[in-house]
Amino acid sequence: MKVLHTSDWHLGQQFYEHSRFDEHQAFLAWLTDTLVSEKIDLLLVAGDIYHTATPPASAENQLYQFIKTTKQHCPDLHIVIIAGNHDSANRIMAAKPLLAQFDTYVVGRFDSNAPHEVVLPISTKNGDANVVAMPFLRSSDLSSYNRQQEQPLTYNQGVALAYKDALQTASELPSAPLIAMGHLHAKGGDISSDSERNLVIGGEDAISASIFTDQPDYVALGHLHKAQSVAKKETIRYSGTPMPMSFSERRYQHQVVIVELTDSGTSVNPLYIPSFCKVMLLPEKDCVPLNELCELIKQLDLTDEDLAPYLRVKLSAHDTDTTFREQIEQALEGKQVKFCGIERVRQQSNQQDDEQTLFEDVSQIEALNPHSLLEQAFANNKDMAGQAVPKELESLLSQVIDELNAEDLL
Ligand SMILES: [Mn+2]
């Protein structure tokens, strides 16, 4: 039986105010072709289908159109989709009865009183599999576990119990290869510096991979945007996003994972996704004077690009020419790019890392994560300059972010 694992599509995402519809469309067309050519029996989408809990109608339409077209080309395909932290559990579940007609199963929420609801026995023409389709777990999904305890459980303990119950339920089914899915931050995973909106920026809520136990033949994860295996196990993997979600992800090698489950074991192979729309930072390395930057822009050769690339330019904060915007705009004239702004960069003298930059373009401030903003606020304050952010303040901020996330306010 052949499985394709992908995640974090973020349909409906705007990238610096530019719609990504065409790019997503190109990816989905590639995916349909790949499902056909690779003769895939089961497609797993491990959360964050949409970028927000209230995606634009065009994004929902895109998902349904993809399922319809794909089923026309691969009538025997089965699809399992779980909700991620960006998705609305309720919204995803609304289409459940209709999607079931297309052998597509969606799981939005985990109920600790009904763990069987996330356990799906899937029967394909090339074999069966039991899938533990665990969606992103919010603290509120786990609260009923607390009633059985004297001490309130931590989030991590609740997540471990949810997997234990679901895996136990799966083990009671007729024997078949076992696949676990999840949308969480597993311990040790590489996180991207500015686009993963999650519970865990401080690191304390990363989940140990031991909760998956040794039972599953494959664990298909979503949430981290960089493709990687977890805890040095080839069969526990993040597929990563199909396209960069931020400038810091522009060098990731985007992929889907092809998993073959046979009697003799599991084989896992990444399949790289073509880049449909380039994400360019100019210059890539150190800042150059304004006139050189304008020259670089004018020299950009974009004739081979199907979709206009995203372009963001970097200008040293020491460059004091006040007409920089006009000059850059002039250089951009006639260039088929989706312009993503000017980053005023100050190389920090006390930083070892050359990549470490200060962002001064206020309009792009939301592209930064709250922790780096806090660090910068400290660095920029004349009374506190040079001091590290106190640990207590860091953890307070994490706590606030957790609470906002739990209430879906971020
Ligand atoms: Mn996520």
From TrEMBL:
Could you tell me which InterPro entries the record lists for this protein? Calcineurin-like_PHP, DNA_Repair-Maintenance_Comp, Metallo-depent_PP-like, Mre11_N, SbcD, SbcD_C
Cite the entry's keywords alphabetically. Answer: DNA recombination, DNA replication, Endonuclease, Exonuclease, Hydrolase, Nuclease
- Domain Nuclease SbcCD subunit D C-terminal as annotated: residue spans: 289-380
GO molecular function, a single term: exonuclease activity
Coiled coil where? Answer: none
Q: Any idea where the Calcineurin-like phosphoesterase domain is?
A: 1-226
Q: Which family does it belong to?
A: Belongs to the SbcD family.
The free-text function statement in the UniProt record for this protein reads: SbcCD cleaves DNA hairpin structures. These structures can inhibit DNA replication and are intermediates in certain DNA recombination reactions. The complex acts as a 3'->5' double strand exonuclease that can open hairpins. It also has a 5' single-strand endonuclease activity.
Identify the NCBIfam families for this entry.
sbcd (TIGR00619)
Subunit-structure text: Heterodimer of SbcC and SbcD.
Protein name as annotated: Nuclease SbcCD subunit D
What species is this protein from? Pseudoalteromonas lipolytica
